[in-house]
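Need a sequence for this fold. Nothing fancy.
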């Protein structure tokens, strides 16, 4: 029995490649990925930043590869997926407590949880919830962690909506603006995605540098 061509293309999708996801699932895929990355711990590895940026770029028709997306539905799908996912993650954490994170075996996931807890302790609820949106992995684990730590529902909801809209809509429009202003921008897509990933890792690097400096200072003082 042969598999239909459209089904074969979806089964062969690379979930780590933004263009592959968009080519297989379109706008619907964006919403699902946003929900999974921000609401389900198993989605921590998904390419949220690069997916939003690439999707916005492809709305201009300059991204090539036969992928055509409409900006309006894309913005709605991205925002709804990001906001609903975050709220779902919070509710899961509120019900399951820290047990859910404790069961995870991924070292990267546990590191993200530690950084998320540091964010909440250092910057307070509002600022931490907004900043976490822009840090891979941390934006996945902070939501259930906030629920487990009993962050007030109203406070979490207000700030996750603000952060979620700035992140999802902002990155999508950034891709759209760049795609509209640069002809044949597809030639530079891989470089642009790599740049986005590098920028998203800056908070991790800065925090790691500060942690090491703090540790050295404490050792010298001790």
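Here you go.
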């Amino acid at each position: 029995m042969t598999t239909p061509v459209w089904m074969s293309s979806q089964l062969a999708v690379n979930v780590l490649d933004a263009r592959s996801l968009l080519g297989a699932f379109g706008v619907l895929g964006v919403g699902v990925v946003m929900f999974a990355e921000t609401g389900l711990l198993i989605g921590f590895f998904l390419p949220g930043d690069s997916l939003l940026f690439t999707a916005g770029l492809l709305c201009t028709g300059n991204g090539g590869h036969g992928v055509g997306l409409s900006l309006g539905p894309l913005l709605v799908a991205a925002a709804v997926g990001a906001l609903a996912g975050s709220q779902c993650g919070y509710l899961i954490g509120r019900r399951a407590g820290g047990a859910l994170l404790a069961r995870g075996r991924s070292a990267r996931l546990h590191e993200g949880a530690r950084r998320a807890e540091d964010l909440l302790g250092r910057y307070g609820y509002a600022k931490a919830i907004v900043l976490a949106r822009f840090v891979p992995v941390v934006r996945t684990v902070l939501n259930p962690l906030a629920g487990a730590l009993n962050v007030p529902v109203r406070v979490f909801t207000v700030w996750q909506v603000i952060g979620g809209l700035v992140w999802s809509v902002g990155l999508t429009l950034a891709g759209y603006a760049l795609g509209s202003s640069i002809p044949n921008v597809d030639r530079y897509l891989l470089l642009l995605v790599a740049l986005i990933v590098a920028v998203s890792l800056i908070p991790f690097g800065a925090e790691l540098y500060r942690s090491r400096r703090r540790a050295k200072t404490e050792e010298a003082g001790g």
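For context: The CA atoms of residues 80 and 166 lie 13 Å apart.
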